[in-house]
Amino acid sequence: MSEVHVRRRRKRMSEMNVVPYIDVMLVLLIIFMVTAPLMNLGVEVELPTGAAEPMEDQGDPLLVTVTRSGEFYLDTGDAPQLIDGDTLRETVAAIAARNPQLQVTVSGDRDVPYQFIYSAMVELQRAGVASVGLTGDPEQE
């Protein structure tokens, strides 16, 4: 009789080594935890309070923030950018040309002189914005 060799096939491992992926995930988590508090999400101002009704929501408006020192910040959805009056007018005019129904709101610290708020509104009017809203906090009961 002839000898028959039976080969045993090795069973392939179907498991995946996930340890390197976990290491990368933990490093990314630490990076995000460290950098998240450092991101500037807006300009710090103390808004005035009032009992006004909120505006109808027609999308995200442009936000112009006026600081106590009279500086303008324009927030188009990204981080607010410090700009001067001429740049504010030109930038908003370019955006308003593409979107005639553009909503623009002006916010300012409650201690900002009215002249600075008025200057921002004049620049927005010169840019061709049809209506400008003012931002405030609701009154505390």
TrEMBL record:
It is a single-pass membrane protein. One of its GO terms (biological process) is protein transport. InterPro entries: ExbD, Tol-Pal_TolR. GO terms for cellular component: plasma membrane. GO terms for molecular function: transmembrane transporter activity. It holds the Pfam family ExbD. Keywords: Cell cycle, Cell division, Cell inner membrane, Cell membrane, Membrane, Transmembrane, Transmembrane helix. Gene3D superfamilies: 3.30.420.270. It comes from the Bacteria. The keyword Acyltransferase does not apply. It is found in: Cell inner membrane; Cell membrane. The chain crosses the membrane at residues 21-39. Part of the Tol-Pal system, which plays a role in outer membrane invagination during cell division and is important for maintaining outer membrane integrity. Belongs to the ExbD/TolR family. NCBIfam families: tolR. The Tol-Pal system is composed of five core proteins: the inner membrane proteins TolA, TolQ and TolR, the periplasmic protein TolB and the outer membrane protein Pal. They form a network linking the inner and outer membranes and the peptidoglycan layer. This is Tol-Pal system protein TolR. It comes from Wenzhouxiangella limi.
